[in-house]
Design goal:
One of its GO terms (cellular component) is cytoplasm. Residues 16-193 form the Calcineurin-like phosphoesterase domain. InterPro entries: Ap4A_hydrolase, Calcineurin-like_PHP, Metallo-depent_PP-like. The chain is an alpha+beta fold. It has 2 domains: 3-246, 4-Layer Sandwich (Purple Acid Phosphatase, chain A, domain 2), CATH 3.60.21.10; 250-351, no CATH class. The protein has helices spanning 27-36, 58-69, 93-99, 103-111, 121-131, 133-139, 167-172; strands at residues 7-9, 17-20, 44-48, 74-77, 145-147, 151-154, 186-189, 208-209, 215-217, 230-235, 241-246, 250-253, 267-268, 276-280, 284-288, 295-298, 302-303, 308-309, 313-314, 325-332, 335-340, 343-348.
């Protein structure tokens, strides 16, 4: 199948349009986002793929999406994770389930069963398709693309002749944000977290609008990245763009102002985790990556045996003022990884309550 075989044309000019993606089984966060933007029946909502999997509540998310679609002003595109019902007999499924929580786990839990209760993967697939057909029906015919007067909304990316883009590429293209294209319309994609496209050394999950290409990346890394969030792109009735996000991290008050001074931040993201680690201590270890400048890495982030980072990493330190609140991502020896205005970085532990 190609995009030309399953797409939707939609007029959104003169209406406020909210766009999000990669909700990943988090109906609570979607609800929080819609409340934050004061979503109303006069608005349009576009969910640009991946409403399920990875998060804890995919079944309820599908039911929520079904109710939203029934309102008549909510539209969705298909994402690669939404195709899991079609992949129940694929060889990769069981391995995937070892490291990702999926709607398959939820369905088995509702049935009171495990994979071991089935004589074959085919038997499991047949029962899940039969018992949960109503869930599959919500997502199975979603369009691969929504095209408006000025925008193309597609989960992962498009080819130059966008109508000829295959379903696989539309749902799985990983680096589209950084790929030049000649399309006049702005292409809005999810799928690949925006934080993977590091700009000026900064690591953040906020929506990225490419300075040279008509491309917007809106995946906030929700349920994929340790510090992820659910992003919202707001296209006002007059065409003006705004961005926002929601998350659920603990808030902590700054009790002591901190200014790290001038710094040149370094950030490392998927898939570039290979490093050479040198000497360090319990707090930080000096590391190098290829021809890049070396930097100090929080020691807990390093797999010394594999000479790899365990996760995305930034050496950025935040400037904070006493009395403000920041989001706490994780506390480490002597330092705390926080998020402020969507930007991830460290502060010394003593500056927080």
């Amino acid at each position: 199948m190609k995009i030309k075989d399953n797409y939707l044309k939609l007029n959104i000019r003169n209406k406020r349009t909210i766009v999000t993606s990669d909700v990943h089984g988090r109906p609570d966060l979607l609800d929080k986002l819609l409340e934050k933007v004061n979503f109303s029946p006069e608005d349009i909502l576009i969910i640009n793929g991946d409403i399920i999997d990875k998060g804890p509540d995919s079944i309820r998310m599908i039911s929520y999406a079904e109710r939203l679609k029934a309102q008549g002003n909510v539209y969705m595109t298909l994402g690669n994770c939404d195709k899991i019902f079609d992949e129940l007999e694929e060889a990769f499924l069981y391995d995937y389930m070892e490291y990702r929580y999926t709607i398959v786990h939820e369905m088995l839990k509702q049935l009171g069963k495990t994979r071991d209760d089935y004589s074959s993967q085919r038997e499991l697939a047949e029962e899940l398709r039969t018992k949960f057909e109503h869930l599959h029906n919500v997502v199975k015919d979603l369009p691969l693309m929504i095209e408006t007067e000025d925008y193309i909304f597609v989960h992962a990316g498009v080819d130059e002749d966008y109508m000829e883009t295959s379903e696989h590429d539309a749902l799985n293209m990983p680096f589209f944000y950084n790929q030049p294209h000649q399309l006049e319309k702005t292409v809005v994609v999810g799928h690949f977290p925006a934080c993977n496209f590091v700009e000026q050394g900064m690591y953040h999950h906020n929506i990225k609008i490419h300075p040279n290409y008509n491309t917007i990346a809106i995946d906030g890394g929700n349920e994929v990245k340790m510090s992820g969030q659910l992003n919202g792109l707001i296209i006002e009735a007059d065409g003006t763009l705004h961005t926002t996000f929601v998350d659920e991290y603990e808030q902590s008050m700054v009790i002591q102002s901190f200014d790290p001074g001038i710094q040149i931040p370094h950030s490392f993201t998927y898939p570039d985790y290979s490093i050479t680690a040198f000497e360090g201590d319990e707090y930080f270890t000096y590391c190098e990556q290829g021809e890049h400048d070396g930097c100090m890495v929080k020691t807990e982030f390093i797999d010394f045996e594999a000479q790899r980072l365990k996760d995305d990493y930034t050496d950025y330190f935040h400037t904070v003022e006493a009395g403000e609140f920041v989001s706490v991502i994780q506390r480490y020896t002597g330092y705390v990884l926080i998020k402020k205005n969507g930007i991830v970085g460290f502060v010394p532990e003593e500056v927080l309550e």
